[in-house]
C-alpha cells in the first residue's frame, strides 16, 4: 500500500510541474482568448537565457532579474508586432500567429545561444527524504513550494489590485472593457510579461530536471491535456488538471502498464483528455461557451 | 444648432443589408434623447456606431466639437462617452463594487508597479476611486449589494450595475441600450426615475433606446423615430406623438 501512496505522491508532484507550465497558457488565454502555442518556446527561451547568463558568471538573483526583463521586452515586442496588427481577428488567426511565433522564438534562441544542452543546477538536491512514512524527493517539495508561491503571488496581483480588476474585466468581456476605456494593448503587454516570467520559473524547474535543451519547448504538448481537463480559462483548473494528469499518469504506468506490456505515461494523459472532451468539454473549471448570435 | 452629439449622413450596412441609411440628427447638451423604432430599425447599430463598436460606412459624427468618421471604443470612453449594453455585458464573476471600480480604470494615473506594490500615487487614488464607487452605488441603491458577485444578482439589479459602471466615470454622454428591457411596469417607472436623476444630478446627456412608447414619451425631452435605418421623425415627444408617419409605422400597430 505504501508503494501505491509513493507512486501517487510522486505523480502529484510531477503534476505540479505540469501545472506550472499550464498556468502560463491560462493567463494568456484569459486575457486575449488565444491558445498561445509559443508558450513552450518562451519557456525554452527564458531557461536558455538564464543558463547562458549563469555560465557567463552572473549571480543567480541578477540573472533572474535580467531574464525577467528580457521576457518583459519580448512581451512588448509581441504585442507590438503580432497582437496589435491582428486585433479583432479570429482567435484561430491569432493561434496560427503564435504557432509561427514559436518557430521565430526558437530560431532566435538557436541563433543567439546555440544548440547545446546546458546543465542547470539550482542548488536544490534531488534526494529522497522520508515524510510521513513515504519517500519524497526534496526537489519535488521545493518545486511545489515555488509553484505555490507563484500561484499565491498571481492570486494577490489579480484579486487585490486595481490593475487586477482591469485584467479580469478584459478576461470577462473584452468589448465591455474597451467601452469603459480599458486600454487593451496595456493589458496584453502586462499579461504576456507575466506569462513570460511564469515561463521562466517553469523553465528553470523543468530545465534543472531535464537539462536546458530544445526538447523543453515540447512541454506545450504536455500542457494541452492538462488544460483540456482543467479548463483553459481557470488557474485553479490548471492546478487541478496538472495534479490529476500527474497522479493518474503515474498510477496508470504502474497498474495498467504491465497489462499492455509498455509505458503508459506517454499517452495516458491524452486519452484522459479525450474522455473529458466527450463528457465535460469545458473542463473541470472552465467557462461553458455561450455564444450569442 | 450645434449639439453635444451630431450625426451627419451616417450609413452602415452588414453584408448588403442597410442598417443605417444616411441618418442625421443632433442631441443637445443636457437632454434625454430617446431612440424608438421597431426591431431591426437600426437603434442598437446606431449606438454601436457612436461609441465605435461598429465603423460607419459613410458620414461623420461630431462629439463635443470633435469630428470623426470612426472611433475606437476605448477612445470614445476617454472622450466621455459611457454606455450600457442591451444584454448587460457585465464582468460576471466580479463583485458589484469591482464592476463599478473597473468603470474608473481610465482615470488611473498610478503605474502598474505602483498598483502592485501599493506605492506612490496608488494609495490616494485607491481611496478616491473607492469613494467615487461608493457614491455611485448608493446613488443607484446598490450599496447593499456591493460585495455580491454580479452573476448572482437578479436581472433588474444587474441593469443598475451596468448603469453604475458607465456612470461612475462621469460621462458627458451616456448611451443606454434598452435599460428597461425585461422589466415590469413598476420597475420601468423606477428606472425612469433613476435615469431622470442621473441626467439632473450628474448632468450627463442621455441617449437611450426603449420599446415602451408610453415610458419614452414621459421620460425623454427629444425623440428620434427610426424605421429601417431611416429617420421617420425627430422632435419633442408631443410632436412625434402626432406625426402621421409615426402613427402609421409604429405607434398605431399592435406589438
Order of helices and strands of chain B: EEEHEEHEHHHHEHEHEEHH
Helix proportion of chain B: 25-40%
Helix content of chain A: over 70%
> What is the fold-level CATH name, i.e. the topology of the largest domain in chain B?
Rossmann fold
pLDDT average of chain B, as an integer?
Answer: 87
Beta-strand share of residues of chain A: under 5%
Net shape of chain A: globular
Q: Distance N terminus to C terminus of chain A?
A: 54 Å
Oligomerization: heterodimer
* Poorly predicted residue ranges of chain B: none
Number of domains of chain B: 2
Q: Termini distance of chain B?
A: 35 Å
Return Rg of chain A in Å.
19 Å
Q: Over all CA atoms, what is the radius of gyration of chain B?
A: 19 Å
What's the SSE blueprint?
The complex is a heterodimer of chains A (293) and B (255).
Chain A: H1 2-32, H2 39-55, H3 60-83, H4 91-113, E1 128-131, E2 134-137, H5 138-159, H6 162-172, H7 174-179, H8 184-210, H9 219-230, H10 235-255, H11 268-279
Antiparallel strand pairs in A: 1-2
Helix pairs in contact in A: 1-5, 1-6, 1-8, 1-9, 1-10, 2-3, 2-4, 2-8, 3-8, 9-10, 9-11
Chain B: E1 5-14, E2 17-27, E3 32-36, H1 43-50, E4 58-63, E5 66-68, H2 73-79, E6 81-83, H3 96-102, H4 112-117, H5 122-139, H6 155-167, E7 173-177, H7 185-202, E8 205-209, H8 213-219, E9 222-227, E10 230-235, H9 237-242, H10 244-251
Parallel strand pairs in B: 3-8, 3-9, 6-7, 7-8
Antiparallel strand pairs in B: 1-2, 1-4, 4-5, 9-10
Helix pairs in contact in B: 3-6
Short description:
The complex is a heterodimer of chains A (293) and B (255). Chain A has helices spanning 2-32, 39-55, 60-83, 91-113, 138-159, 162-172, 174-179, 184-210, 219-230, 235-255, 268-279; strands spanning 128-131, 134-137.
Structure overview:
The complex is a heterodimer of chains A (about 290) and B (about 260). With about 290 residues, chain A is an all-alpha fold. Chain A has a domain of about 200 residues. Helices cover about 70% and strands about 5% of the residues of chain A. Chain A is built from 11 helices and 2 strands, in the order ααααββααααααα. Chain A has a two-stranded antiparallel ribbon with strand order 1-2. In chain A, helix 2 runs parallel beside helix 4, helix 3 packs across helix 8 and helix 9 crosses helix 10. The longest helix of chain A is centred in the N-terminal third of the chain and has 31 residues. The radius of gyration of chain A is 19 Å and the shape is globular. The mean pLDDT of chain A is about 90. A 6-stranded mixed sheet of chain B has the order 6-7-8-3-9-10, with helices on both faces. Chain B has a 4-stranded antiparallel sheet with strand order 2-1-4-5, covered by helices on one side. The radius of gyration of chain B is 19 Å and the shape is globular. Helix content of chain B is about 40%, strand content about 25%. Chain B is built from 10 helices and 10 strands. In chain B, strand 7, helix 7 and strand 8 form a beta-alpha-beta unit. With about 260 residues, chain B is α/β, with parallel strands linked by helices. Chain B has 2 domains: about 140 residues, P-loop containing nucleotide triphosphate hydrolases (Rossmann fold), CATH 3.40.50; about 80 residues, P-loop containing nucleotide triphosphate hydrolases (Rossmann fold). Chain B starts with a strand and ends with a helix. The mean pLDDT of chain B is about 85.
Amino acid at each position: 500500500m505504501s508503494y501505491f501512496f509513493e507512486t501517487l505522491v510522486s505523480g502529484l508532484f510531477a503534476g505540479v510541474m505540469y501545472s506550472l507550465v499550464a498556468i502560463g497558457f491560462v493567463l494568456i488565454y484569459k486575457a486575449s482568448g488565444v491558445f498561445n502555442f509559443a508558450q513552450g518556446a518562451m519557456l525554452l527561451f527564458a531557461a536558455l537565457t538564464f543558463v547562458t547568463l549563469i555560465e557567463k558568471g552572473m549571480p543567480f538573483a541578477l540573472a533572474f532579474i535580467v531574464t525577467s526583463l528580457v521576457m518583459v521586452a519580448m512581451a512588448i515586442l509581441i504585442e507590438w508586432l503580432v497582437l496589435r496588427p491582428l486585433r479583432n481577428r479570429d482567435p484561430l488567426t491569432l493561434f496560427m500567429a503564435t504557432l509561427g511565433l514559436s518557430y521565430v522564438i526558437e530560431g532566435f534562441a538557436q541563433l543567439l545561444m546555440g544548440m547545446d544542452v546546458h546543465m542547470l543546477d539550482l542548488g536544490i538536491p534531488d534526494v529522497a527524504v522520508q515524510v510521513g512514512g513515504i519517500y519524497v524527493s526534496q526537489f519535488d517539495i521545493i518545486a511545489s513550494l515555488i509553484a505555490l508561491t507563484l500561484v499565491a503571488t498571481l492570486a494577490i496581483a489579480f484579486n487585490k489590485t486595481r490593475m487586477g480588476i482591469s485584467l479580469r474585466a478584459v478576461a470577462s468581456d473584452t468589448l465591455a472593457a474597451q467601452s469603459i476605456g480599458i486600454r487593451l494593448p496595456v493589458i496584453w503587454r502586462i499579461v504576456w510579461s507575466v506569462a513570460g516570467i511564469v515561463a521562466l520559473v517553469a523553465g528553470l524547474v523543468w530545465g534543472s530536471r531535464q537539462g536546458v535543451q530544445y526538447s523543453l519547448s515540447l512541454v506545450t504538448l504536455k500542457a494541452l491535456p492538462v488544460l483540456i481537463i482543467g479548463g483553459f480559462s481557470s488557474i485553479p483548473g490548471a492546478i487541478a488538471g496538472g495534479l490529476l494528469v500527474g497522479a493518474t499518469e503515474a498510477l496508470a504506468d504502474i497498474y495498467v502498464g504491465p497489462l499492455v506490456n509498455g509505458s503508459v505515461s506517454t499517452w495516458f494523459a491524452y486519452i484522459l483528455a479525450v474522455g473529458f472532451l466527450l463528457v465535460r468539454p469545458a473542463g473541470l473549471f472552465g467557462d461553458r461557451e455561450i455564444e450569442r448570435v | 444648432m450645434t449639439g453635444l452629439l451630431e450625426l451627419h449622413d451616417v450609413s452602415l450596412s452588414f453584408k448588403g443589408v442597410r442598417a443605417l441609411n444616411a441618418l442625421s440628427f443632433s442631441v443637445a447638451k443636457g437632454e434625454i434623447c430617446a431612440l424608438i423604432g421597431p426591431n431591426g430599425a437600426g437603434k442598437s447599430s446606431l449606438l454601436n456606431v457612436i461609441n465605435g463598436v461598429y465603423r460607419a460606412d459613410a458620414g461623420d459624427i461630431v462629439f463635443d466639437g470633435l469630428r470623426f468618421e470612426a472611433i475606437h471604443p476605448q477612445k470614445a470612453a476617454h472622450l466621455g462617452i459611457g454606455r450600457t449594453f442591451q444584454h448587460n455585458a457585465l464582468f460576471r464573476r466580479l463583485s458589484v463594487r469591482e464592476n463599478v471600480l473597473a468603470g474608473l480604470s481610465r482615470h488611473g494615473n498610478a503605474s502598474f508597479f505602483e498598483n502592485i506594490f501599493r506605492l506612490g500615487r496608488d494609495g490616494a487614488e485607491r481611496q478616491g476611486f473607492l469613494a467615487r464607487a461608493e457614491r455611485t452605488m448608493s446613488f443607484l441603491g446598490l450599496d447593499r449589494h456591493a460585495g455580491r458577485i454580479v452573476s448572482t444578482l437578479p436581472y433588474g439589479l444587474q441593469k443598475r450595475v451596468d448603469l453604475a459602471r458607465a456612470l461612475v466615470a462621469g460621462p458627458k454622454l451616456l448611451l443606454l441600450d434598452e435599460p428597461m428591457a425585461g422589466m415590469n411596469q413598476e420597475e420601468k417607472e423606477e428606472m425612469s426615475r433613476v435615469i431622470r436623476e442621473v441626467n439632473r444630478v450628474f448632468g450627463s446627456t442621455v441617449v437611450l433606446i426603449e420599446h415602451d412608447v408610453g415610458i419614452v414619451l414621459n421620460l425623454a425631452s427629444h425623440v428620434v423615430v427610426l424605421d429601417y435605418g431611416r429617420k421617420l421623425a425627430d422632435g419633442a415627444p408631443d410632436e412625434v406623438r402626432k406625426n402621421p408617419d409615426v402613427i402609421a409605422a409604429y405607434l398605431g400597430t399592435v406589438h
